[in-house]
Amino acid sequence: MQITVKLSGGLEKMAGTREIKVTINEGETVDTIFLKLSRRYPRMVESLLDPITGEIAGKYEVLLNGRHLREGLYTKLKNRDELLLAPKEEPPATE
Q1: Would you say residue 89 lies in a domain?
Q2: Which stretch of DSSP H or E encloses residue 40?
């Protein structure tokens, strides 16, 4: 089984690619994907996670198949899922 991790913004630059294919086993969750990614892209994963809580840092969003994670990092994955890791959109500046 395999999922696709898509990156945008500064994350894409840190990893040097827009897309990463990751092999998964049945029952794996988003946190295990971060562990696998940290082996190849430690700087990127460090920036994604809050160093105190271990949760996704507030400046990033993680979407699974175009939707926000319901169970956070413990959301289960299935074959051909697509995980998008991206900086949150900044609201437009008001003058």
Answers
A1: no
A2: helix 30-40
Closest CA to 84 of 40, 20, 29: 20
Give the total number of structural domains in the chain: 1
Which residue's structure tokens are 């400046």? Answer: 59
Q: What does the CA dihedral 76, 16, 40, 66 come to, rounded to 10 degrees?
A: 0
Q: What is the mean pLDDT of residues 42-66?
A: 92
In a domain, 94, yes or no: no
**CATH number of the domain where residue 60 is located:** 3.10.20.30
Indicate whether 49 belongs to any domain. Answer: yes
9 pLDDT band, cuts 50/70/90, is: confident
Question: How far apart are alpha carbons 76 and 74 in whole angstroms?
Answer: 6
| Residue 76 predicted with pLDDT over 90 | yes
**What whole-number distance in Å separates Cα of residue 66 and Cα of residue 32?**
19
Q: Which residues, in sequence order, are bridge partners of residue 90?
A: none
